[in-house]
UniProtKB/TrEMBL annotation:
It comes from Zalerion maritima. It comes from the Eukaryota. A divalent metal cation 1 binds at D223, D234, E431. It is found in: Cytoplasm. It is an enzyme of class 3 (hydrolase). Its EC number is 3.4.11.18. Belongs to the peptidase M24A family. Methionine aminopeptidase eukaryotic type 2 subfamily. Residues 60-74 have a biased composition (Basic residues). Residues 136-344 form the Peptidase M24 domain. Binds 2 divalent metal cations per subunit. Has a high-affinity and a low affinity metal-binding site. The true nature of the physiological cofactor is under debate. The enzyme is active with cobalt, zinc, manganese or divalent iron ions. Most likely, methionine aminopeptidases function as mononuclear Fe(2+)-metalloproteases under physiological conditions, and the catalytically relevant metal-binding site has been assigned to the histidine-containing high-affinity site. Its cofactor is Co(2+); Zn(2+); Mn(2+); Fe(2+). This is Methionine aminopeptidase 2.
Length: 450
């Protein structure tokens, strides 16, 4: 989920309008660096799971990401050892000893090199055991669901079906359907499934009755969160069905990877933005006979993530700024970049779907009884996790709009309207969650897809 730059802050940025540097070298050196996730070797026994839940899955096995550390416990009640299609096998069943795979491990460099072997830092890392297990759990759910989504989503499907397909899969894999009070706070969606098309860059998900159908020519940002005990994975990718968009996607993928690479303990936020910008602007894309520079969307940011809170207090710009703030040990960052063929600037548009209770919500008396009861529902079901109108619908709430709008105007709940660039433009996004562990940087949401 994207963080927005306040308007006053933006004025301080010195942006060279239309600048489109030709530093191709910067781009290629940082682009799509290989990931070094600890894979166990690809299973070659594709056909040996015939008795499992995966048996019903038939043809779609070829691109499946297999669980990497399977430990068969004798006497296990169920014998599913591979994920089903759609994904419905509990992650805790695929990894019975909670030995969820790590993300990409990157050793610190330069003056932080000592951390990898430091006894003290290792000790600190070990203290984080529960935190890491929850994070690895959530990340593997994200990977399995998104890789299913990548091979399943096709033009002709409705956005509602796509969103529900992702959300029902996430809830099934963590084993919490979120239908009973408090259940969605244990594990489930970390925030609503963003399905933002074309010039819309972020924060679009269908509300009830939405009949929109994905088109062949669309550029769709798929941005969803998975949380386990409040540890949120925030990771996003872009889907297209026409080759002409490939340079746009390559620009943004490379820019995000450059940001991930620059991130580290003591790295300065403004400088990371500069590196991201340089990589992004080294690309251009030709659409319909016109060549467009790929511009970073300068009022969208990466951000820290706190327990149950998607936007922490630090922002990672995607253009050069003078922000000298440093990344620190223990920080969790969502590194996300957006590229655009439009203005490189977004504004609010369309009907709001995303909301979240503010963590610093003031204690104001609510006079409207519908607002009061809705606030209680939000507290019990989502806490400060972002939710959307469909999430209220599915737990049986109706006629809540007046109350919801009242909570927003009272300052207790924040609305996150869709963010759009110039009409007719195209925007793309890639995003990873990274942990600045005491010993190593972990790109926790890294997969073999992006
Ligand atoms: Co985000």
């Amino acid at each position: 989920m994207a963080a927005q730059v306040p308007a006053e802050e933006l004025k301080k940025l010195s942006i060279k309008e239309g600048a489109n540097g030709n530093s191709k070298a910067a781009a290629t050196s940082t682009a799509a660096n290989g990931n070094s996730i600890e894979h166990e070797s690809e299973d070659d026994d594709e056909d040996d799971h015939g008795t499992s839940a995966a048996a019903e899955t038939g043809d779609k096995k070829k691109k499946k990401r297999k669980p990497r550390k399977k430990k068969k416990k004798s006497g296990a009640s169920s014998n599913a050892t591979a994920q089903s299609d759609p994904p419905r096998v509990l992650m805790s069943q695929l990894f019975p000893n909670a030995n969820y795979p790590e993300g990409e491990i990157v050793e610190y460099a330069d003056e932080n090199r000592y951390r990898t072997t430091s006894e003290e830092k290792r000790h600190l890392d070990n203290l984080n055991n529960d935190f890491l297990t929850d994070y690895h759990h959530a990340a593997e759910v994200h990977r399995q669901v998104r890789q299913w989504a990548q091979k399943t989503i096709k033009p002709g499907q409705t956005l509602t079906d796509i969103a529900e397909g992702i959300e029902n899969s996430v809830r099934a894999l963590v084993g919490h359907d979120g239908l009973t009070e408090g259940d969605a706070l244990i594990a489930g969606m970390g925030f609503p499934t963003g399905l933002s098309l074309n010039h819309c860059a972020a924060h679009y998900t269908p509300n009830a009755g939405n009949k929109m159908v994905l088109q062949q020519n669309d550029v769709m940002k798929v941005d969803f969160g998975v949380h386990v005990n409040g540890r949120i994975i925030d990771s996003a990718f872009t889907m297209t069905f026409e080759d002409k968009y490939d340079p746009l996607l390559a620009a943004v993928r490379a820019a995000t990877n450059a940001g991930v690479k620059e991130a580290g303990i003591d790295a300065r936020l403004g400088e990371i933005g500069g590196v991201i910008q340089e990589v992004m602007e080294s690309y251009e894309v030709e659409l319909g006979g016109t060549t467009y520079p790929v511009k970073p969307i300068r009022n969208l940011n990466g951000h820290t993530i706190k327990p149950f809170s998607i936007h922490g207090d630090k922002s990672v710009p995607i253009v050069k700024t003078n922000d000298q703030t440093k990344m620190e040990e223990g920080d969790v960052f969502a590194i996300e970049t957006f590229g655009s063929t439009g203005n490189g600037y977004v504004r609010d548009d369309m009907e709001t779907s995303h909301y979240a209770k503010k963590s610093d919500a003031p204690n104001v008396p609510l006079r409207l009884s519908s607002a009061k009861s809705l606030f209680s529902v939000i507290n019990k079901n989502f806490g400060t996790l972002p939710f959307c109108r469909r999430y209220l619908d599915r737990i049986g709430q109706d006629k809540y709009l007046l109350g919801l709008n009242n909570l927003v105007s009272s300052g207790l709940v924040e609305g996150y309207p869709p963010l759009v660039d110039k009409k007719g433009s195209y925007t793309a996004q890639f995003e990873h969650t990274i942990l600045l562990r005491p010993t190593v940087k972990e790109v926790i949401s890294r997969g073999d897809d992006y």
